[in-house]
Amino acid sequence: MSIFIPNNETKLYGLLGKTLSHSISPSLHNTGFRDLDINALYLMLECKEKEYLEDYIQSLKNLNFGGWNVTIPYKEAIIPYLNGFSSLARDAGAVNTVLNRRGRLTGYNTDVIGFQRQIEEAGFVVKDKKAVVIGAGGAARAVIAALIQLNLAEVIIVNRSKANAEELVEIFKEKESKTEFSAAALKESEYKELLKGADLIVNTTPVGMYSDKSQKKLVINPEYLNENQFVVDLIYNPLKTELLKEAEKKGAQIGNGLPTLIYQAEAAFKLWTKEMPKKRKWKEIAEKAVREMVVED
Ligand code: NAP
C-alpha cells in the first residue's frame, strides 16, 4: 500500500462545522482522491464558536483551500461571507458546499441534489403529492427545496418550535407559488391528521440518532403511518432508526439518510475535482463507518 505524502501542490478541502468527530466525509473524499490519484487532502475543520467563523473562513482562504463542506451549525451562518450562490443554495437558504475560485467563494447546496436523487432512485413520484417534513433546520430547507423542484403539491412543516416552522413557511411562500405550505407544532394533537394524509414523511431532526442526547427514539407517534406512505429518515446512524422500524411494521416504504449523504458528497467532489468517485466503494466505506459508530456509542 503506498502512502500519500502531501506537498506544496496539495489541494486542500475539508468539513467546516462545530463538532465533527463522527463524520464520514473525510474517509469518502480522501479515498476518492487516492483512487483517482488526485493530489488533495480533506480535513476536519472544527470552528467551535460562531464568533470565530469569519476569521476561520479568512484563514481557509489564506491557506488557499479549494473548497469545503459546511455542516451544523453553519449552513446558514456562512451565507454573509460568500460572494455568490447556486440557484439551489439560494432556494434552500442554506449552503453545504463552498467552492473557492481565487478567493471568490461560491455557495452550493448539494444536500438538495442528494435528497432529490435518493427520492427519484427510490421510485417515488413527488409530483402532486403531499409531504410532512419534520424539523425546520438546514436539512429541512434542503429537503423542501428538493421537493419543490420535483413539483410537490403541498408541504407541511412540523417542528418542535412552531415559530421556526412558520418562519420557514414564510420564506418558501415568498419564493414558490405552485406549492402550498403550512406549519404545525410537534404535538400529537396537531400532527395526527396531517401524518395520516401525507404521501411522504421526512424526518430531518436528530431524534433517533445514536449521538442524540435527548434519549428520545421516536420523533412522532408512528401509529398514524400507513402502507401507502414513503417514510425517509435523514439519519444514517443507525441505518434503521426506530422511526423506520415502526414505519416498516406499518408496511410503508422506508429510506435512511445514507443515499443522501453519499450523493451530496459525490456532487461536492465533482464540483471541486470535475471527476466522479467510485460509487460502490463509497457506499461500502459509509456503511462500514456507520457500523463502527455503533460500537463507539
Ligand atoms: P439543525 O439546522 O440544527 O435543525 C435541527 C432541527 O431539528 C430543528 O428543526 C430542531 O427544532 C429539531 N430538533 C432538534 N432536536 C430536537 C428534539 N430533541 N426534538 C424535536 N426536534 C428537535 O440541523 P440540520 O442541519 O437540519 O440537521 C438535522 C439532522 O439531519 C441531523 O441529524 C443531521 O445529521 C441530518 N442530516 C443528514 C443529512 C444526510 O446527508 N443524510 C444531511 C443533512 C442533515 P427547533 O427548531 O425547535 O430547534
TrEMBL record:
Keyword Acyltransferase recorded: no
Domain Shikimate dehydrogenase substrate binding N-terminal: start-end pairs: 15-98
This protein's UniProt keywords: Amino-acid biosynthesis, Aromatic amino acid biosynthesis, NADP, Oxidoreductase
Molecular function (Gene Ontology), one example: quinate 3-dehydrogenase (NAD+) activity
Gene Ontology terms describing biological process: amino acid biosynthetic process; aromatic amino acid family biosynthetic process; chorismate biosynthetic process; shikimate metabolic process
Domain of life where this protein originates: Bacteria
EC numbers, comma separated: 1.1.1.25
Ligand binding (shikimate): 23-25, 71, 96, 111, 236, 264
Domain Quinate/shikimate 5-dehydrogenase/glutamyl-tRNA reductase: 126-206
Catalytic activity: shikimate + NADP(+) = 3-dehydroshikimate + NADPH + H(+); L-quinate + NAD(+) = 3-dehydroquinate + NADH + H(+); shikimate + NAD(+) = 3-dehydroshikimate + NADH + H(+)
Keyword Transcription set for record: no
Residues noted as binding NADP(+) in the record, renumbered to the chain: 135-139, 234, 257
List of catalytic residues: 75
NCBIfam families named among the record's database cross-references: aroE (TIGR00507), PRK00258.3-3 (NF001319)
Family: Belongs to the shikimate dehydrogenase family.
Name of the protein: Shikimate dehydrogenase (NADP(+))
Organism encoding this protein: Halanaerobium polyolivorans
